[in-house]
Amino acid sequence: MIPGVRLVVLGKQGAGKGTQCVRLSHHYVVPHVSTGDMLRGEVKSKTPFGVRAQSMMDQGELLPDDLVMEMVGGRLAERDARGRGFVLDGCPRTTAQAKGLEEIVHPFGLDLVINLEIDTSLVMKRLASRRVCVDCGANYSTAAPPMVNWTCDVCGGEVVQREDDTEEAIERRLDLYEAETAPLIAWYSERDLLVPVNGTGSPDAVTRRVVGAIDTRRQIPRSLS
Ligand SMILES: [Zn+2]
To answer: Which of 10, 102, 116, 199 measures 20 to 30 Å from 178, CA to CA?
Structure first.
């Protein structure tokens, strides 16, 4: 039996983070806890939390750390995550959130923080070809479109290029991401939790690298995993 994992995955937009998180959650049989997905769900079903979050985002505000941690903490307290662990995607984004997460996962802690690294030029190419379902957020690209006419394979919604996927906007977001995550990288390095993984290549190759990094770190003989 493969042991579970308590994992945080960092990576800039276009680094393939979402794809890898889904694969890792299957491999380790743990939930993929994505703050983006959770938030979309709350907004869509108009929960009190979702309504509050939506109005903040409408005003162009970032969600405050305590609100994000409340949502994440609630999810990580559920049975599946407590039992086998989780792949956390989209959180933490600040050191305040990293501290909050430390409290949430106490006393078990995290196994590892994976930082998916990829060249900016490659990211630009990926993001410029990206297409997204307006309803469920499923990702496609000009190289891998939905089966029928830019209609989402998952939910039947319309698949479009996001307005903010222009080269200029992408560059601005990547700069912001670097600035935002630099303190996080330092925070997890100091705690000896951070492992950089090369995010270039096929999804299979990247998954193999990440799984290899996790297994090596846990010193589990390959024959058992
Ligand atoms: Zn969809």
So the answer is: 102
